[in-house]
Design goal:
Length: 246
């Protein structure tokens, strides 16, 4: 969110952080490009459907990170699920968890957590259905759940419940992604969070007319063959797929 547009940078405002992004900035003459980039990203992430079938259990004051790191680095998108939803307003059954229009086919529980009595029964329901994955040491009350102690085992357990939504060849730990559906079109936001360029080929299960969108430059390039991608550090590209009609 751009802010700190100062009329003057006299006095302590000169050292304000984050730095001034207004007319005193050395890149002010390129601000329109940056603003357009933010606008396009905001449009993509508004009034659409987030495609995500993995949840990691959390609490209002605690979000575990170790399993999340594995999911990020293996391109398995996830949302955190606050524990209270398990007994307050989520539908928990043999197909997973349904909440606020989302369907989570697998729930990952990471690390030692306090499990209220109300949470045990819905978690056991998921365990009996094979949709509960335990990462690390957890209480023995969750019998039947799949236990994973290494990244490969965690990814394999997730994939048994929901297939990968995006794959890279070769894979790379610095790539993050998000899948949005808007107006019937699929958008895969793919970002390089590392400090080195990444060269890979992207595959997705959705079939249709594909194109690379560069939201910063405002350009698009149709894809005829494999969706190859060279992504510089700290850069985002969007794979757009217009599904085939049939």
């Amino acid at each position: 969110y751009p802010h700190a547009f100062y009329y003057s940078i006299r006095g302590p405002r000169r050292d304000e952080r984050p730095p001034d992004v207004g007319p005193h900035s050395p890149w002010w003459d390129r601000y329109q490009t940056f603003a357009d980039y933010c606008r396009r990203l905001s449009w993509l992430n508004t009034d659409g459907t987030h495609v995500c079938h993995v949840a990691i259990l959390g609490e209002s004051d605690y979000l575990p990170w170790e399993a999340a790191k594995v999911c990020y680095q293996q391109q398995r998108d996830f949302n955190y699920l606050e524990m209270r939803h398990l007994w307050e307003d989520a539908v928990v059954g043999g197909e997973g968890i349904r909440l606020a229009g989302m369907h989570y086919a697998v729930l990952v529980v990471d690390g030692l957590m306090h499990l209220p009595a109300a949470a045990v029964e819905p978690l056991q329901r998921l365990a009996r259905a094979g949709r509960l994955v335990l990462w690390g040491d957890l209480p023995p009350t969750l019998d039947g759940a799949v236990r994973a102690h290494e990244p490969a085992a965690l990814v394999a357990a997730i994939d048994r419940c929901t297939p990968p939504d995006l794959t890279l060849s070769p894979p790379h730990p610095d790539i993050r992604y998000r899948h949005q559906i808007k107006n019937g079109t699929h958008y895969y936001l793919i970002c390089n969070e590392g400090m080195a360029p990444v060269e890979t080929t992207v595959s997705v299960p959705v079939k249709g007319k594909r194109a690379w969108l560069d939201l910063f430059a405002g350009t698009e390039e149709e894809i005829a063959g494999a969706a190859t991608l060279t992504l510089p550090p700290c850069t985002l590209m969007v794979l757009r797929v217009v599904p085939e009609k049939g």
